[in-house]
Structure formats: structure tokens, C-alpha cells
Amino acid sequence: MSRVSLINVTKRYGKVEAVSKVSLDVEDGEFFVLLGPSGSGKTTTLRLIAGLEVPEEGEVRIDDEVVNHKTPKERNIAMVFQNYALYPHMSVYDNIAFPLMVRRKELKLSKSEIDRKVREVAELLKISELLDRKPAQLSGGQQQRVALARALVREPNVWLLDEPLSNIDAKLRTEMRAEIKRLQLKLKVTTIYVTHDQVEAMTLADRIAVMNYGKVFQVGKPLELYNNPRNMFVASFIGSPGMNFMRARVESSDPKVRLGEYVMNLSGLPEVSGLREYVGKEVVFGVRPEDVLLVDDGSYDAEAEVVVSEPLGSETIVTLKLFDNIIKSRAHGSKLYSIGSKVRVRFVKERLKFFDPNTGELISS
């Protein structure tokens, strides 16, 4: 296992900064996820750690040693690519054994030792019965397991995975997520995993770095990011559906906030005390779908019109029109909501977030 650090790392392609002053610390044995949309810089960051790219500025460290100009082989890392990169003419056995065979003399491995390692990792990944097959004879999930086995057979200090589940179907993706987590916990190998899928990130990670435009927007444990996003990008990217945003106006320092025709009294909530500096100004009101409650009776905050209703069995995602805003509610149960019908909405005020409309940053207390 190893500790990985990036210190003010920048990578340019021509005039484009693919990675801009990124600093990260990945702890020994941690499962760390780089999460962001396409073009956010997450794969380039992974390639910098792997040694497939060299930074123009900053340092990449593995166990406190600067490795900027070391080859991937010298870093003792293993990488699993999105397309698996299996050799089609080789058997599964030979694909797994390949990284050991090419370094056999250097590692001083006998054929029997290589055979033992291949069979051990094949058993770990439950592919022992596939060792004689060629990649073309395997399903997508089986090919994924072979790629994972090939990466693990050399016992790397750091395991790098670049969107490894993006080419398999949804059901298998769920199974492989659990498998990757099981392996990482069993082997305790430092793992850095790239994905654009926030569900993957939330279910796998010890910690997540949310990236966009080549920069790290926030680092934290999954629930920390979900409950306490620092800005609108993190709030919208973490969660499915993401956070709802609406324009609002701070009416008084109590504080009272106007949302369309409705004025919310938020007095007594210390987490919104920062709104006092915005009296008479617009802010962005943020609320998670599960905190938009659809109520039949009792107190409610506003009426909304049902635009779309998506029953999912144990819950229903209801799209609503509220004061010219389109928002989503996560309603528990399988109740049907008719399109065009009116529903009563109540917000969980303790969980509301407010953001600066110019910077997108959270307005904190």
C-alpha cells in the first residue's frame, strides 16, 4: 500500500489547462474517487499519477517520493482502462500472466510462482474456469474481471481504475461495484477510481474529489458532500436527481426569504444567518428532492402543478412547476400523481441551502 499526493499539479495541452493547480492527498489503503463530467480533468489526473503524463508544474508523490519523471513501471502501479485492453490472441491465463512474464527476470519469478499467482488471483475474482478461453469468448463482465485480475496479479502499491464499469449493462454494473469494493477491502490496496457516475462514487468511495474545468471543487466523504456542498456545482452533481435551484430574494434580516408569492420565515435556523448580508438582494435557493414534501393536509408552503410523475416502485419522482420554476420531489411510496393536478408542497427548512447567485458559492453562517 502507498500514500499518493499531488501538490499544485498543472498539465497543459497547448494553451488548454487540462489540470490546474490540483492538490490531493490519498491515504494509505484508501478508496478515493475522482468524480466529474466529461472534460473535467479526472482522467488526466489519473494519467499523471500513473506516469503516462508529465506535469508542467507541481509534484506527484508516492510515499513522499517525487515521481514526476519516473516511468509507470518504476511507480509499481497498476491501471485498469475503460476498454479493458485485453490481448485478443492470448488466453485469459496468458493475459493475466503477461505483466509478470515481461518482468520475470527482474522480479526473479519462476514459472511455478507465476502459475501460483495467476491461479490465486483468478480464484479471488471467480474466473478460474475461464483461464483457457480467449477474450472474444467472454461476456463484458467476465472481460472486466480478467482486466482486474491482470492489474492485481503483480501486487501493485496503487490501483488506478479509469471508468472501468462504463461499458457494461446496468445490472452487471451494480454487481461489479460490489465486487470491486470487496476486492479493495480484502487487499487493502490504495485505490484511485475515476467516474462520471455519482452513484458509483457514493457507493464505492471512502472520499470523493469532485472535479470540473480541471480543478478540484470539493473533497470529502460521500455524505459530507451530499449534505454540505460548498457550491452549486457540487450540489447539482452529487445526488440523483440533483439539488433543485430557484431564485429567491432576502426580504429582511430575520431572515425572511421570498420565493415567488411565498415568504419563508427562517428565524431560529443558525445555518442561514449568513443571509443577513443579502437583505434586499437575490440569492439561489437550493433544496434536495427528498426535502420537497408533498403533503395532503396540515401546514404547507406553496401549491405546485404536477408536470411529470415517474413511479419507481418504492418511490416516485414527481416533476413540479412551482412559481415558474421546474423542480423535482422524491415522494415515498407508489402513489400516482396525475399530470396537471395541484399538490401542496412543504420544504424541510432545516436542510435548505442558499448560494450566492454570482459566485455559486454556499452562503454559510
Can you tell me about this structure?
There is one protein chain. With 365 residues, the protein is an alpha+beta fold. It has two domains: 4-237; 244-364, no CATH class. The chain contains ten helices and 20 strands. It has a six-stranded mixed sheet with strand order 6-7-8-3-9-10, sandwiched between helices. A five-stranded antiparallel sheet has the order 13-12-11-14-20. A hairpin with a 2-residue loop joins β1 (4-13) and β2 (16-26). α3 (92-101) crosses α5, α3 (92-101) runs parallel beside α6 and α5 crosses α6. It is elongated, with a radius of gyration of 25 Å.
Short précis:
The chain is of the alpha+beta class.
Give the helix/strand layout:
Elements: E1 4-13, E2 16-26, E3 31-35, H1 42-50, E4 57-62, E5 65-66, H2 72-75, E6 77-80, H3 92-101, H4 104-107, H5 111-124, H6 140-152, E7 158-162, H7 170-187, E8 190-195, H8 198-204, E9 207-212, E10 215-220, H9 222-227, H10 232-237, E11 244-252, E12 256-259, E13 262-265, E14 282-287, E15 292-295, E16 302-311, E17 315-322, E18 325-332, E19 342-347, E20 353-355
Parallel strand pairs: 3-8, 3-9, 6-7, 7-8
Antiparallel strand pairs: 1-2, 1-4, 4-5, 9-10, 11-12, 11-14, 12-13, 14-20, 15-19, 16-17, 16-19, 17-18
Helix pairs in contact: 3-5, 3-6, 5-6
